[in-house]
## 1
Amino acid sequence: MTIQKERVGIIGSGNWGSAVAKIIGENVQKHPETFEYPVRQWVFEEDYKGQPLTKVINESHENPKYLPGIRLPNNVQAEPDLIKTCEDCTMLVFVLPHQFVRGVCDDLQGKVNPSVKAISLIKGLEIKPDQVTLFSQEIGRRLHLTHPVAALSGANIADEVAKERFCESTIGCTSAQAGELFHRLFATPYFRINVIGDPVGVELCGALKNVVAVAAGISDGLGYGDNTKAALIRIGLMEMRKFAKSFFGGVEDVTFFESCGVADLITTCAGGRNRRVAEAFAKTGKPIDVLEKEMLNGQKLQGTLTAMEVHQFLTHHQMTKAFPLFDAVYRVIYEKAPLDTIVRNL
Ligand SMILES: NC(=O)C1=CN([C@@H]2O[C@H](COP(=O)(O)OP(=O)(O)OC[C@H]3O[C@@H](n4cnc5c(N)ncnc54)[C@H](O)[C@@H]3O)[C@@H](O)[C@H]2O)C=CC1
Ligand SMILES: O=C(CO)COP(=O)(O)O
């Protein structure tokens, strides 16, 4: 009897997408009994110094735009065609800035094998004013997948992970079998994974901590110091938990003690892009989109957009007052409220 090996596709190739491609490429080589050797990675094609980025990646085995200085394994193949990337895949890893997921799902409709095992590394939420959905659920629904989509999230600043500095991450997955397979795909001695049965909690933590990171950055920009930042982290954690409990069933308190919870809050409020750009916003008063372009070289912020989306949703449900930190971040970024609003109404 021949056992069918897993063919893995990665959708996304930014800063985290590239760091994760390194891990996946290496683990696929380490487990030839489980995975097929080539790993296709969809790259949103762009010009890099006069050449297509996919060509540069495939020739140099490096993504010099989004993860410079890190060698990608030879089996990772950059592919500009989204549909071709997913062709014949039995496992798909979604790792995109959340603002692009809708477009990608539109393009993939009817083109993905419904029995594919998928996992979302996206930190964001799909919000319509009256409704909040997880991207794992949205991907599963839009692509008619038969298995629930898992989630991976943790205290994982991409550049540090790519340099193999020890950290932890959390996979939320309701199937023990799929959890084992995803563990095999992602775990390394420097990227330690805990698989838990609360995918909803894992994903919510990853999305909402970005709003708290914006508050931390504003606080840094004002020079408020470490005590204030610790207070914002604690209050932010409580609002994340309240949001999860108010709008989703079954989220477990212990999830907030995993890497995806408190650990990610700490790292993101210390070293993340949302924090950094929010600090610059507080110091310069320049618009966020201008700072994003100036400071991130094509990488994308998630926290400011999530703050707006969460605000729309909370406004619809007349619950902004129950989330004073989330509300303050929205008002400072989008309504020109004074910067110290982030501590004034807590
Ligand atoms: N960078 C990090 O340290 C970490 C990021 N994450 C999360 O992973 C997700 C992906 O983040 P990154 O890989 O860092 O992305 P990124 O922030 O580096 O974003 C750039 C990516 O967006 C792509 N892009 C630009 N325009 C596009 C379009 N119209 N359609 C599709 N793609 C387009 C670019 O080609 C590039 O691959 C986000 O939700 C982020 O919060 C999670 C953990 C760590
Ligand atoms: O999610 C992250 C670390 O776990 C990265 O956060 P930023 O997007 O703010 O850099």
## 2
Amino acid sequence: MNIASLSRIHIDNVRNLQQVKIDTLRKVNVFYGPNGSGKTSILEAIHLLGMARSFRGSIKSLITHGQSQTTVFGELQPGSLPLGIQRELTGDVTLKLGGRPVRTVAAMAEQLPIQVINADSFDLLTGSPSARRQYLDWGVFHVEHRFFDQWQRFQRGIKQRNMLLRRGKLSPEELAVWTRELAACGEIITTYRRAYFELLEPRFQAIIAQLAPSLAGLELRFRQGWDKQLSYIRALENSEPSDREQCYTHVGPQRADIRVLIGGHLAADTLSRGQQKLVVCGLKLAQGQLLTEKGRGRCTYLVDDLPSELDQQHCRLVCEQLAGMKAQVFITCVDSEDVAAVWPVADGDEFTMFHVEHGGVSAVEAR
Ligand SMILES: Nc1ncnc2c1ncn2[C@@H]1O[C@H](COP(=O)(O)OP(=O)(O)OP(=O)(O)O)[C@@H](O)[C@H]1O
């Protein structure tokens, strides 16, 4: 089982981090410092290593102004596995794992499964269904290795079918070929998604009961993207007239969603910002827990500005959950005590703090 844990990270040219070397990473890494000092940029660099992209903005905006490329190097323990990425303004990407070039980001993501909790994570509740599909598919991808091929097959299929629909004047046989193709992989994707969701939901409920007992009554509902009484092929056949009329495929996994409800209302319309953040944390923590239970390793958590929106008691509860997962975490905050004061004391040996200022990072004496 991959129990990825970064022991070192070297960052070149990520925003205001021109050359940063951190060789003393531990399980819990807290980066504190004033606004604009570069804390989030450290999380971005780690994200780049696992996902080959930033979680905010384009690569162009991430590369230090005046530079043409960014490089991030990391070392995973145990086994001292080196991991490297170079991205250039031209769009070129070089990925290396164990000193050898790799072609797909998936290979990196498998080594370093990353979960981000930041201000954009609210999209999980308040954003469009695509944010929730991405969330769901992240989990299915990591737990069910056959998913990715089928997902790619579906993406190709729907592109072809929509192209045909746009072309107009198509014969029923031509369309039927792609309808059958889509139906086949669409059913498989949905089976994987549903199976994953059914494992995820009870874990989420258990975590949220700890994080926010007052939110008992939260419900997660999986929507597959077409009438659940119908097979996908039948749903596609039924929607063919409107597909032809409007030139795109109306039903299918591309419309799947997870509804988050409380007392029958959408959580996004009902919960306070702090409560929403707790739900988001619950969703992300549940995925990490499931990943580990499935023997697929541990998530690396990147938590940007943990204290924002949360009172100290809830901050403490989130930290307790993170500590319980035994995952490696990277947390940013403004004041040194924001996290140190609430992280479980028993984790002392695993806990380290870094002060970030003007793009420089320095380790701080253990608490
Ligand atoms: N491409 C770039 N090149 C150089 N500097 C940049 C670039 N993009 C952003 N910056 C600067 O780098 C810094 C990035 O800061 P970052 O967002 O990591 O700050 P932070 O410590 O997380 O701040 P906050 O507490 O306000 O969230 C900012 O000062 C920003 O102005």
